[in-house]
Amino acid sequence: MKGFEETRAGFSFGPVFVVLLGALVVASGFFFILTAELIRSQANDRTRLVEATDAFTSTFAAERNEHNVVPASFRRRGIENLAEFVESIQERQEISVTMRMPGTPGLELRTVENDPRVRAAIKEIADDGDYSVIEESLFENGRFVGRTIFPSVASNPDCVSCHNKELRSPEYKLGDVMGAYVVESDLTSATYNNLTYAVSAGVLAFLGGGLVARRERRRMNRVVTSLEGQVRAERDKREAEAFSNFLSSHDALTGLSNRTMFRDRLDAEVEACASGKSEDVFVALIDLDDFKSVNDTMGHDAGDALLTGVGQRLSALVHEEAGLVARFGGDEFAVLVRMHAELTHPDQLGEKIVQSMAAPHSHEGLSIQGRCSVGVAALGEMTGGDASALLKAADTALYAAKRAGKGRYRSFDRELKDNMWKRAALSSALPIAIEQGEIYPVFQPQIDLGSGEIHGFEALARWKWYDLVVCPDQFIPVAEENGLVRQVDLQILRGAASFAVEFGRRSARPVRISTNVSALTFKGAGLAEEILDILLETGLPGDQLTLEVTETVLMENWGEVHDVLGVLRAKGVRAALDDFGTGYSSLSYLRRLQFEEIKIDRSFVVDLELDEQTRRLFAGVIDLAVGLGKTIVVEGVETDEQAEFVMEKGAHVAQGFLYSEPLSPADAAAAFSGSSLPSRREDHDLREWI
Q: What is the pTM of this model?
């Protein structure tokens, strides 16, 4: 664009200069032509005047007699008689013409030349015997004068003798220069006129040229404007393409590479390792802890500032030539680094990343803690691994780090490698298992501590896979990854509802069941309608169903949980807050959402017999829940001492291996019908998945 601006500026100044220069050339040329013609024509007129004078003098001299003895008078009289001729010249040319005839210096015949320069010229002509005519045009005394000097030559003997007689001395002989004709034209007025004509011609040329230049400038401006538009459009197109290309390979918020670009670079690094150009490559996947709470409590601007800050800190750890930092989306980041002298083990990378997030971030006076969980994997630890396997390994390590707690890292090792193989096998078999009904509920009795009878059952999911039994903590995460967890939850609910209706009818007693609903199940629309359809399909009354919701579910899906439980509560369905006391915000959820039951996590029960502080804490939690008027259910009761303690502190219901392990539908029905609860079995008909 700069070139076009310079071009436009040139068109605004250049034509004016060119037209002005052209007008000056025209005016100057016109002036010089007119002046040259004026000088030439006046020189011709002066020559004709002298020729006429010579002719008159010759004629007068031929008729002279003894009374007319002065030759000079002949000539002066001839000049006087030529006055009419001179006037005609003046009228035609509007130029003043004068003529005089001085003699040679020292021998003047009555006419003396006053101009010393002309007098010197006449003397030089006389001394040299030069008959040449002198023509000159010059500024003199404020006038522009055209002058012709003709030598006056003694052309016949009579003229010579006459002059010598007048001078009383033999001064002249035939052929001598006796003086000169000096004819002058005052060209000042004509020159001014020529100058006026020239200026007028220049003005006309300037105006005409200006019109032409203006038309040309407009045409060129249109061309330039058109070119500018084309260039601007092309520039905008290129910028849009560049921005589009940038967005296709980078994250718009942080400016980091995106998943696609990261994967391309990882493929190249894996290929370099395979060819021996690189020793090893490490991949770290980073997930921010409690990022959702930052957005909820501080606003999305603070969340964006945190993401940008995390990207900057990660970039500071990785040199561009040795690695790459990417944002996969949300609060997920990835780091790719080649092994080098200062980084020889994946643990070192994980530790550096966690340490870099230790210091809080600042945004508009707010302090934002950006702790993260990190999973790290090394290509060298993979057997025949590719980029996909390496990412999967890092993701497995990240999942293990998050399960172990917040603000820590985990490297992919042999244990995780075995677990990843198991998860891969489960992931492949799970869809078929759901379709063929291999996932089924088992029922752990919940005992009424007041009466000692069965209060109800918690339906727990199991997977019968060949001769193995897979527990939910192993396949539910796989179901969540594959988007199948909702089908699993609803399948367990349908099986539990069918069991409660069938054996409730046989025993003529209502059978209460409770079942868990995972976080991802709440994210899909229509959950309340699907649950009501199951109740309608199986015939289970709503007041015999309790849905257990963990605090994690509430944190991730508060709005969805609130809406779903609101619809179901109108049909009599109860809600239980599971794992109460394990999260920092449980009291907040108790206040905001009306749960009918509170389930105290088994972590409060495990050390009751050994730790006095735990006993006091447990008592405080019980008192708090009882004070809120909720039904208290305690999980994980395994000893008589624990049972006695929780009953003494005011708990209503308990479940655990002290009473029974999870039972098959037949055993649960038998226990509910009044038979004694089976003791915990040491051996199983099916081997448990490890």
A: 0.54
